[in-house]
Specification:
Structural class: alpha/beta
Strand content: 5-15%
Largest sheet: 6 strands, parallel
Shape: globular
Order of helices and strands: EHHEHHHEHEHEHEHEHEHHHHHHH
Oligomer: single chain
Distance between the termini: 27 Å
Radius of gyration: 21 Å
Strand order of the largest sheet: 5-4-3-6-7-8
Length: 382
């Protein structure tokens, strides 16, 4: 920071956190160095190359003369939010992409996936703050409720995980082991296997991502608020018509600002609430465990033998005082899934949300990011 002339938080919320807390002394000393350039991704790869059926329909609707190079012009799609034939085309394209992912999983892993189920996808580095552990604990909780007859209105769902863990990151490796154990048990269960399936996408990378992102109905962006610098998977999902289920963290904040609350589902602690808990030291994982029946039900499944022995993760959450607030956000996360299911059943409204996400994705183009770097940081002309 001392040796640099520019400091960037790569998402609006993170830039503010840097200035207010993490790097406050530096900001007070040299505020002119601090700025924000939100990350971006290229529509050329993640939409135009990855989802040709969708591109064809967009071209037929708003023309292909300009938006391929200027994706901010996708906002022209906003006028079609009540165009029933166009919305039906979006639904058909999503189903085509879901069929492609289902075929890949069947061919590579031998798992039969129903493309008519809700595709709920979390793909990113496996890391405690990104909270894949909360996601799989919630899957375990739902499976247990299904077995006990407590989820009568559950929507058939396939939950996908993908990502890699650093070689020495024990908790991340254990999380992958848990996901795979849960998948084996649930997928073969005659009572719930037709209503809930779990898939761990092996060797996740760019080529697989080009198949995964266009197939998603729900984009899981559930990091502990204040921890995610920006995220870019959230943008790749968005431009392909997935609805964000996430915390107000990283670029999720700007996605929510772009599409509105009606076209995403936000849950959990805010960044200020998280930072306050850290500052005050007044959070107790044990209180959450003993005072919240659903949390206790989920955590006990780690150690009762249902999926094997995962005492490591049980102890990590309780003895390390749940450093990323998985237990605190658990009920809010569950309610967010209930809201997702409610919206998904309203087919036309859901497709309208798909359209709004695609139309608003242009602001997250890497072309825009690079232009801002060139203009404000590097001071170079094209």
């Amino acid at each position: 920071i001392v040796g640099s002339h520019s400091v960037n938080g790569v998402a609006a919320i993170q830039s503010e956190i840097l200035k207010r807390t993490t790097l406050k002394d530096f900001y007070d000393y040299a505020p002119v160095k601090f700025n924000n350039k939100t990350n971006g991704i290229t529509h050329r790869r993640w939409l135009i190359n990855a989802n040709p059926e969708l591109v064809q329909v967009i071209d037929e609707t708003i023309g292909n003369g300009h938006w391929h190079r200027h994706p901010e012009e996708l906002t022209a799609l906003n006028k079609y939010t009540n165009d029933r034939p166009f919305l039906e085309k979006l639904g058909k394209i999503k189903h085509i992409r879901k069929e492609a992912l289902a075929k890949l999983i069947r061919d590579q892993q031998g798992i039969a996936i129903d493309p008519d189920t809700l595709f709920d996808i979390q793909v990113k580095r496996i890391h405690s703050y990104k909270r894949q552990l909360m996601n799989i604990l919630h899957v375990m909780y739902i499976a247990d409720c299904l077995k006990k007859g407590k989820e009568s209105d559950f929507l058939p769902t396939t939950v996908f995980f993908g990502g890699k863990a650093a070689p020495g990151y024990y908790i991340a490796k254990e999380t992958i082991r848990l996901i795979c154990a849960v998948a084996r048990r649930i997928n073969d269960d005659p009572l719930i296997g037709q209503r809930l399936k779990v898939v761990f996408l092996e060797n996740f990378g760019v080529s697989l991502g080009e198949i995964v992102y266009p197939a998603a109905d729900v984009s899981e962006q559930i990091s502990t608020a204040s921890k995610e610098a920006s995220g870019t998977g959230n943008m790749k999902f968005m431009m392909n018509g997935a609805i964000t289920l996430g915390t107000l963290d990283g670029a999720n904040v700007e996605i929510r600002d772009a599409v509105g609350d009606a076209n995403c589902v936000i849950f959990g602690l805010t960044a200020d609430e998280v930072l306050n808990y850290y500052a005050q030291g007044n959070y107790s994982a044990w209180d959450e465990y003993h005072g919240n029946e659903s949390v206790r039900q989920a955590l006990d499944l780690l150690v009762d033998g249902t999926y094997g022995d995962f005492r490591s993760l049980y102890d990590y959450l309780l003895q390390n005082n749940d450093e990323f607030f998985i237990l605190k956000d658990f009920d809010s996360y569950h309610k967010a899934h209930i809201e997702i299911r409610r919206r998904y059943r309203e087919e036309r409204s859901w497709r309208r949300s798909m359209l709004m996400n695609i139309a608003c994705s242009g602001r997250f183009s890497s072309d825009r990011t690079i232009r801002e770097y060139a203009r404000d940081i590097w001071h170079v002309e094209p």
